[in-house]
Amino acid sequence: MLNFNTLIMKNHFYKIFIIISVVLSSCTNQLDILPTDQISSATFWKSKSDFDKALTAIYATMQSYEFSHEQPVWDCLTDNAYAQHNSGSAKEIVAGSISPSTGGYVAGVYNDSYKWIATINIFLKQLESYKGTDISDALKKQYSGEVKFLRAFYYFQLYYLYGDVPLVLEPLTVETQIQPKVPATQILNAVLADVDFAIANLPDVPYYQNSGHAVVTSAEALKARVLIFVAYGNTGTPNLETLKQVKDLTVHIQKEYSLSSNFDNLYRSAGQKGNQEIIYSVNYLAPNNTAPWDMYYGDWVVVSPLQNFVNDFECIDGLPYGVSPLTDTNDIFKNRDPRLAKSVYKDHPDFGGGKIQIPSNSRPTGYGIMKYLDPANLPFGFSTLSAQNAVIFRLGEVLLMYAEAQNEIAGPDETVYDAMTKLRARVQMPAYPAGLSKEAMRLRIRHERRIELCFEGLRYFDLKRWRIAKEIMNNVKDGLLPYHFEDKLYRWPLPQTEIDKSGGVLIQNPDYN
To answer: 155: part of which helix (H) or strand (E)?
Structure first.
């Protein structure tokens, strides 16, 4: 298996993070030996500049592979794609054969989330005790809001993937380092408390402006995603009061943003600058801070879309492929939703004008992903310096959240149609036919999420929250390996290494004992 995530460690922000991490996690040496040529905990945290460096390092934690440039790999845990290199242990996950010893995302999300949460907790503790006059109380609250936004993001991954986990909101010591699990509801409450603090204290600017720093609408988008995911509980039937909160949040966000006129601009460096659709992103800056987007997906073919996914894109008349009279089985891109050609390539990426890339790896399904590839970076290979930002929240998702929430609350009213029409008009796709029932619109919105948000790391979570993962996954016929999903897979096991280290304090999720 290719160890992709180690490649990113070469970049500049991770060098900063490694330095700051030493400071964040160091304890006082009994001999009180303070080297003058290195950063230490006793000489750091002395000025605003130190906190700015630490804040930069904490933002850089989002460059962890599972949260940034491997967004597309999460689709390999679903009916959308196949992972030929088994990135994230995707093969074990779709086969339903995960265990407490499974690596990839099963262990990685847990371990990395707690690692970065520990860093955030130390930052908050140091900020609370800082007495310097160069950081005002208002700025302290802003800094706290920024890192609590990130802590909420990490704890939500833990909540949704594992359920009951330890809740750690203070720096740990040798005496307190082993923590028991708490009920998942406590984790969710902590997520919402952090995100509400962020909403109250982050800069309330017109829009994100690609700054790399979270703003009020970034936190509102996170809260909307959290709430729409938890609204369905364990039944798949949504709580309408929770969806009303989603609706209110998404209405406010829509006032501050506009859809990018060019779909490609969302995923290419030049188009991301000042893009008023992007609500929060993990930012990169070449040549020192890069991610392997083009190498992974344009050369190594880390993600291979499945035929059933390709077939799910409509024709330009809005009718399903195979049903529409415009269907052309000899050319999969002809007369199709333009997002197909912008999201998927057949055999090799071809940007036109002779700008092509012949992948060095095989194409097991015949397809690769076009989304995220930047022709400005050709040729794609190990030395390619890809600086595309990882878009975490954008207006396209917000419109879909609004439409889903409002349709469940009131049915497919004019505002639901309007949101979906805006999204489809961006790529010249026709509006939905009038007179759809709530059930029919629900299916349309779910289909639209699969198409619009493909390879953005959300499909796996969507199948789980709608409680249709078993139905969908167990009916994949073109997955290149047998798919199997059972109820216990709605929650992942805790890593066995953490269970062992706890000496019996940390209890395994019951389905994996």
So the answer is: helix 137-162
Query: Alpha-carbon distance 436 to 425, whole Å?
Result: 19
In the prediction, which pLDDT does 39 show? 59
271-328 pLDDT, tens per residue?
999 999 999 999 999 999 999 999 999 999 999 999 999 999 999 999 999 999 999 9
Phi/psi-derived region of residue 79, left when phi > 0, alpha when psi is between -120 and 50, beta in every other case: alpha
For residue 5, count CB atoms less than 10 angstroms from its CB and return exposed for 0-12, middle for 13-18, buried for 19 or more.
Answer: middle
Tokens of 310: 């390709």
Q: Identify the CA nearest to 340 among candidates 360, 370, 382.
A: 370
Angle at 105 between CA 77 and CA 144, to 5 degrees: 120
| Amino acid 513: pLDDT | 87
Give CA–CA dist 405/245, Å, rounded.
9
pLDDT digits (tens, 9 = 90+) for 47-95: 999 999 999 999 999 999 999 999 999 999 999 999 999 999 999 999 9
Q: Identify residue 364 by its one-letter amino acid code.
A: P
CA distance 416 to 403: 5
Tally Cβ neighbours within 10 Å of residue 176. Answer: 10
Amino acid identity of residue 148, one-letter, is K
Q: Spell out the long-range contacts of 497-502 with Cβ–Cβ below 8 A and sequence spacing 24 or more.
A: 497/107, 498/110, 498/111, 499/100, 501/178, 502/178
Mean pLDDT of the residues in the chain:
92
> How many degrees, rounded to 5, is the angle at CA 290 between CA 284 and CA 294?
110
Cα dihedral: 89, 92, 97, 101 (round 10):
-20
Neighbours of 48 (CB within 10 A): 15
* Amino acid (1-letter code) at residue 172: L
Could you identify the residue written with the tokens 């497919």? 412
- Residue pair 485/89 in contact (Cβ under 8 Å)? The answer is no
For 414, residues 6+ apart whose C-beta sits below 8 A from its C-beta are: none
DSSP 256: T
Cα–Cα–Cα angle for 406, 408, 409, rounded to 5 degrees: 60
Dump pLDDT digits (tens) for 133-172.
999 999 999 999 999 999 999 999 999 999 999 999 999 9
Contact 303, 18 (CB under 8 A): no
Identify the bridge partners of residue 356 per DSSP, sorted by sequence position: 350
Length of the chain: 513
Q: Mind spelling out the 3-state secondary structure of 35-60?
A: CCCCCCCCCCCCCHHHHHHHHHHHHH
